[in-house]
Amino acid sequence: MTRHMPQKAIVQRTALELDTIHVGECVDILKSLPDKSVDLVFADPPYNLQLGGDLHRPDNSKVDAVDDEWDQFASFEAYDRFTREWMRECQRVLKDDGAIWVIGSYHNVFRLGVALQDLGFWVMNDVIWRKANPMPNFKGTRFTNAHETLIWATKAKGQKRYTFNYDALKAFNEDTQMRSDWAIPLCTGEERLKDEDGNKVHPTQKPESLLYRVLLACSKPGHVVLDPFFGTGTTGAAAKRLGRHFIGIERDETYAKHARERIARVQRANESDLATMGSKKAEPRVPFGALVEAGLLQPGDTLYCPKGQRTARVRADGSLVHGELTGSIHKVGAMLEQAPSCNGWTFWRFKTDAGFKPIDDLRARIRQQGH
Amino acid sequence: MTRHMPQKAIVQRTALELDTIHVGECVDILKSLPDKSVDLVFADPPYNLQLGGDLHRPDNSKVDAVDDEWDQFASFEAYDRFTREWMRECQRVLKDDGAIWVIGSYHNVFRLGVALQDLGFWVMNDVIWRKANPMPNFKGTRFTNAHETLIWATKAKGQKRYTFNYDALKAFNEDTQMRSDWAIPLCTGEERLKDEDGNKVHPTQKPESLLYRVLLACSKPGHVVLDPFFGTGTTGAAAKRLGRHFIGIERDETYAKHARERIARVQRANESDLATMGSKKAEPRVPFGALVEAGLLQPGDTLYCPKGQRTARVRADGSLVHGELTGSIHKVGAMLEQAPSCNGWTFWRFKTDAGFKPIDDLRARIRQQGH
DNA sequence: TAGAGCGCTGAATCTCGCC
DNA sequence: AGGCGAGATTCAGCGCTCT
């Protein structure tokens, strides 16, 4: 139908325009993006419920900032409608193995979390950005508000595949797994964008470190990261630095201008330096039988359990025998240990002149030959 | 009207029964409490965890899951109905200068926060309980879930009067303002209640120091603290220690029995004892990856061993590469030295105009930023 | 006796690809 | 789409035993 042509043309063009900032209303521009075209969404939505400026009802009428209870309810409701509208579009444009991160404070983050859950996203973690240097509460009326909350959620419940660079973060954290609380300083000093008059360009510019960690954890080089509230482009800067693509949406041209200049100054890291610690799961699979086939073990050889008191014999097809028990290295290990499962590669040892060594060493030798 | 007499009698009696545990359904008993009779509510409701099958540690031991009947809900809607019902009653029984604290994890805390806001409570802070020793993520699928979230809210918006012992907390916190993130260990060891068989009495007993800090912050001696999900009585124990009254509601008589015995053992503390519950500031460590994240080192930069003849390149995730070897600063250092372990912070140097310096200097710089 | 070492455990939405 | 099987996966603290 020809009347769809112009729209389609727009969709195509927008889909391809990576690494640029699209100036306009968030939802309008989101609607021009095709389904399942984005790997990751990072959203730092407005949350000034009281100030009125950023919050409009879907019909674009402005929410009155009145103090009475009824209006307070109305304003939460309006915020929820606004939230669900952009969030639903983000869900649509996410690939089936995609995920979303949102950030907020106690003013709005509960509403973001419930919206995610109600729309069918599946929360993986909430993550605390613990500010090293927060602004004190001058009046002494509350606790120093020293953190913000991020929520990481996959597109759908039961989603099998999603990106999480577990081993990269573990290396980052000196070999202990990364926790849900991150200590990161505020965006200040050199990093904070200032205009000609020396005033900060954006009131809530996020530290690039924060986005760096999000993208390092939940995306791969070459992935497309969408930020529907781009602001001064922290997401874009971190994406470029880490070799990811970005799609930015921002309705304020001044912010967009500063963001463009900022991102232009960012250096992308070299391809090889963007590599991170890989997971073992991603390594090529070597069946145990290949060790026998390659002559690294002979049919009839004996394998020993870690403590050495129990043994099994290797058969020609790569199965093991221990008395009546037969099966794979994993199965026989699990049965001997009466455990629900067992990694036979690390469980079983073979005898060498230098003592007992795990059969995993032999697998490593085979994998190395593959190079 | 005489037919109201019996009910009124119950109300009066219940209203006066302080420092006891009322066994029965939460909402039923709440309804028997008079309006505006309570200074503070602390609520640790079921989290609606939605766990799947069994979970085993890498050593094949089974994780003792929270699979109790009381944590099962048919849907988010059912959970929301349940939440709003008990929360509305809590709001009714709160004095006009009263406040509520609730605690939850990402499974339920967003729904708690939205319910509070929708019912007209006014959120003062969200507070993070940073666990010193959380259970790891055994399968390497997410971030270690290392915190829970508490929400502090007053009974109503615009409430002028509420209790916040700013100076007491500041003193408690070594003369700095108390922040919204609290580092507190899990409830383990001696403190954890065990039954005759040595099994834990309650699956989710909270540390007393957590309640201690809440009551110290938001109540006065003599105040009445209501806990509608009393469990094994951590709120009651902290209340007694601090000279507050409590009203406990618990539907499980076994929990209630243990709580009674526990609280009977508690001594009301004098000032000097209270100081010993003091806060130990647990500053989070700065992992090597944070240096790359913050731009103090770039992916691709070279590090040098003490003698300078061997080098490694820094990657985006803070891992190092030396030929075929990859890993954390510690691992690569150890492999190069053929040592069982290595402190990468003192081993590796980076080049400056003033010669080579240990990377530990960069960590010091990051730590300083936090002040 | 002090210290090393080992075992146990904690609110957990905890695999993935192939057939 | 469900079942099967390979094989990957943990941190800190407490309390006990052993030297």
Automatic annotation (TrEMBL), chains A, B:
Annotated RAMA domain residues: 271-369
- Name the chemical reaction catalysed here: a 2'-deoxyadenosine in DNA + S-adenosyl-L-methionine = an N(6)-methyl-2'-deoxyadenosine in DNA + S-adenosyl-L-homocysteine + H(+)
What does the record note on quaternary structure? Homodimer.
Top enzyme category: transferase
Descriptive protein name: Methyltransferase
Starting at the broadest rank, the lineage of the source organism is: Bacteria, Pseudomonadati, Pseudomonadota, Alphaproteobacteria, Caulobacterales
Gene Ontology annotations for the cellular component aspect, listed alphabetically? cytoplasm
MF terms in GO: DNA binding; N-methyltransferase activity; site-specific DNA-methyltransferase (adenine-specific) activity
Q: Which family does it belong to?
A: Belongs to the N(4)/N(6)-methyltransferase family.
Protein EC = 2.1.1.-
- Where does the DNA methylase N-4/N-6 domain start and stop, copy by copy? 38-260
UniProt organism field? Asticcacaulis excentricus (strain ATCC 15261 / DSM 4724 / KCTC 12464 / NCIMB 9791 / VKM B-1370 / CB 48)
Listed PROSITE patterns? N6_MTASE
Keywords of this entry? DNA replication, DNA-binding, Methyltransferase, S-adenosyl-L-methionine, Transferase
Biological process (GO) annotations held by this record are:
DNA replication; methylation
